[in-house]
Amino acid sequence: MAKGKYIFWRLVALLLPYVLIQGLLGAGLISDFQQITLMMMGINIILAVSLNLIVGFTGQLALGHAGFMAVGAYTAAVLTLKIHQPFLLSLILGGLAASLAGLLVGLPTLRLKGDYLAIATLGFGEIIRGILNNVEYVGGAAGLLGIPRLTTWTWLYGFLVLTLLGVMNFVNSTHGRACLAIREDEIAAETVGINTTYYKVVAFSLGDFFAGLAGGLYAHYFYLIQPSSFSFFRSFDVLVMVVLGGLGSITGSVLAAMGITLLNALLQDLAEFRMIIYSLLLILVMIFRPQGLMGRREWSLARWLEKRGEARGPAGS
Amino acid sequence: MALLEVENLSMAFGGLMALLNINMQVEEGDLIGIIGPNGAGKTTLFNLLTGMYRPLRGSIRFRGQDIVGLPPHKITRLGIARTFQNIRLFGDLTVWDNIRIAQHWHRNYGLGVALLRLPPFHRVEEEIARETQLLLEMFGLEPYKHEKARNLPYGEQRRLEIARALAARPRLLLLDEPAAGMNPQETRELMAFLKWLKEEFALTLLLIEHDMSLVMGLCQRIYVLDYGRLIAVGTPEEVQNDPQVIEAYLGQEVNDFAP
Amino acid sequence: MGANGAGKSTTLLTIAGLLKPQKGAIYYQGRDITGLPAPFLVKEGIALVPEGRRVFSRLTVRENLELGAYLVKDKGEISARMEEVFERFPRLKERQRQLAGTLSGGEQQMLAIGRALMARPRLLLLDEPSMGLAPMLVREIFRIIQEINRQGTTILLVEQNAHMALQVAQRAYVLVTGRIVLEGSARELLKSEEIRRAYLGGQ
Amino acid sequence: MAGFLQQLVNGLSLGSIYALVALGYTMVYGIIQLINFAHGDVLMVGAYVGFAAVVFLKLSIWWAFLLAMGCTALLGILIERVAYRPLRHRGAPRLAALITAIGVSLFLENSGLLLFRPEIRSYPPGLILNRPLSISLGGIDFTVTTFQVTILAVTGILLLFLQYIVYWTKTGKAMRAVADDADAARLMGIDVDKTISFTFALGSAFAAVAGVLLGLYYNAIDPLMGIMPGLKAFIAAVLGGIGLIPGAVLGGFSLGFLEALVSGYWSSRMRDPIVFLLLILILLFKPSGLLGKNQVEKV
């Protein structure tokens, strides 16, 4: 009984934003500019949540997220543009390509600690960009032009939900807890039987899979991708969202990604000014509230319902 | 066959011998103490047994299998768990999660099951929850269930660390100074607790300890290390009266200092 | 004195200003110095030779000694003190250009004591000077400690090697798990059976 | 062969600039184990101060160097004081310190964009004599410019100066002592915070010189000019063995040569990817760098 009600509310929470915005879009009440902001929000949420999996939940500072986004974007774009494959397949393959890249990067580098890992992943991001810059097949520095605009609100929302569910399910499983253990104390994690290398690689390739998806969605919304759109500034951008939202809070990443995208849109004529605000926020948060906005807390539908005395969710969700 | 056999185990740090030719035999069901002055190499021995370091030479056999060179998590899976001198809990996670995590290697489901929440997920998670609950009740940690591990009182943190080690289902448990920082009353309680623990979980225990009342009152056999060498093995009485041990602890009696 | 983990080092570190006590006060020459920072206490004449020696391994022996007199401005004074230290530890003079990290354990202990003496302390705190040293060397170190004391420096010595410590000390405190359980003149304690019990436990 | 020698000469001048920047990274890392991401941006600020000195204050280039050194030294102290010290005193995890460093870096870059505008500026011509000198060595001809000689000379002088500070002055000894064992240094009466501030000041001043030299070398400065040299200098520091002063110099020169060779014999567009690949290879196979020793990590 109670469980049925819980599922009902869950479906409502899931579908409401989609239906609402789809309705507004259909009625033509959303301007082009607002639509771009909306799509960027979705893409940034996917990026932030997936990076949080690596940095916040597993405790591995990775600074090459934009590079993996680029792998996904270029793979998907080449598949649709040059090989004429269906969109869905291209997106998934883009994600898998990014994931594979993450695996290749992760296997050797993950035994590096802290700051060395950070600089190595930054290096990999730049190498990916360097390669793209030099491959004429994908347009070199000029980039790929004329990618079909296939990313719609429906596609984006679908993948957004997929990402959130995937990451949440992962985090609330034995596998996700193994990652948390690594973040807390790698040595202790090993001594309770956790293969720490394996889980770091899992977190990396899973996070990079979603980054690749976000890349594919991005490429098929903006027609054009260039190596310069995936520089480490882009990685830093995502990192800011993760840190502000809270290292280890999915809800935090979602909120921060939305907030920052909105701020980006509002202050779009004042790009430097905006970045000064972010950088100051980054410093101030680290000094005064290192846990970020949400800390490690999550907003949970089950708990919310519980508080209202209406339903009881299963433990741990 | 002995549960644990250590032969000629040696370890060096930057040219300095930390352990030299250590030999040990531990039988199933033993309760063994390891003592020795600061810097004698006791924790280094634990780090070698659990795969944290790779020995310079020598062999370690656990249940007949050579475990030298295995990564720590594999050694844990074979049945050796440990605690640390400076308590290493998953500090920002709850007591509940600390115990759940330690069951990782023997109660699990595939990655796909986790991502898609397939039926085995709920079944295994329920098993994990049951065992966690049981362990917390046994260790009197139930009231702290939802506390972050780092916020627990010191004594409870020590207990949680032992509970976590047990959740990994060891046959051999290594305890590194379990009584450190406890007062005599707490130490007496710990002693009773360790006895109970050993029976309840059919464990073999190896413990490093400085509190002599605990070691002498609890252990059947004691290994004494000094400067990385094994200087004595025996029952508490034997060890207490061994001149070499007395010298290691109290120093030589010399009379060339005029008062 | 006391077994491992009894709180000896903690006591010294707190006196030297590297740790802050939760409660209680420390008086030095009649003044409350609780919680004052280490550099200030060095100036006031308290020097600590830390456990494990902690010499600056990538600096030369000579540089280590110079840093011991970091707060002294007068160069002549520094070299005078260094000569004194070299007189006490001729071995250090031979090795003054060597990196401290390449010294043997005993030499490092001498350097650590010499470095502390460069500050001309009134109160010298020594944390386990015998740790990890061969018995011969331990005796040499203790002879030097006794000599320093006889020349007028007050010494607070933390030591596991009880017999040795009680032979050079005038008075001693025995700590067990953070509490003082015994105190008295060294000569009395040397004879007492309780010392052995505090270290080795027993019946 | 002549071409090769010519590339070496080019590599030498760029390499010495990397070395100057790498020194700052290495000193800061040696003393507080932090990758100071903002170091490259301090270089940029130095270049702008130098620019302002010659263009607005009409000072000679040598005064510009000094003024840039002074201003960035203060900036370095300020950064340490405001952003890093609070975290250090709290014992914050290294992840937090690193993220803060990224924040400082972004702050400097974007403040630069806002204050100096994104356009590229050039130092006025003729500040430093730049005449080609043809040299014939054993029958091989190649060209060195007087400016390249100046870069080498400036670097050499600064290295001697650093050598003096670090090995002969009391503060230098204190720096090394803090890097070796901060608690033991405290026991000597050394003010650890002050020593760290001084290290930042020194490293930043060196970065400023590199900034002005780069401005003259490429005849262009812009607010993002510090990023790439900063990253590369970090790579140079790791290559030589991070925390080691001679390592930074060796690493800087090696990187300069490598870049010159890649651009000369392959493609200048491959230069950056190759340099990053090099970084990853070192991290994987010799993380302690060319001059460092590998150590067993104690648990």
Strand order in space, largest sheet of chain C: 3-4-5
- The Cα radius of gyration of chain C reads 17 Å
Q: Compute the average pLDDT of chain D.
A: 90
Instruction: Tell me the series of helices and strands of chain C, N- to C-terminal.
Output: HEEHEHHHHEHEHEEHH
- The tally of helices of chain D reads 11
Secondary-structure-derived class of chain D: mainly alpha
State the helicity of chain C in percent bands: 40-55%
**Beta-strand percent range of chain D:** under 5%
The end-to-end span of chain C amounts to 21 Å
Low-confidence regions of chain C: none
Work out the helicity level of chain D.
over 70%
Sequence stretches where pLDDT stays below 50 over 5 or more residues of chain D: none
Count the beta strands of chain C. 7
**Computed CA radius of gyration of chain D, to the nearest angstrom:** 19 Å
Question: What oligomeric state best describes the polypeptide chains here?
Answer: heterotetramer
The average pLDDT score of chain C comes to 89
What's the arrangement of strands in the largest beta sheet of chain D? 1-2
Structural class determined from secondary elements of chain C: alpha/beta
The global form of chain C is: globular
Number of helices of chain C: 10
Question: What summary fits the major beta sheet of chain D?
Answer: 2 strands, antiparallel
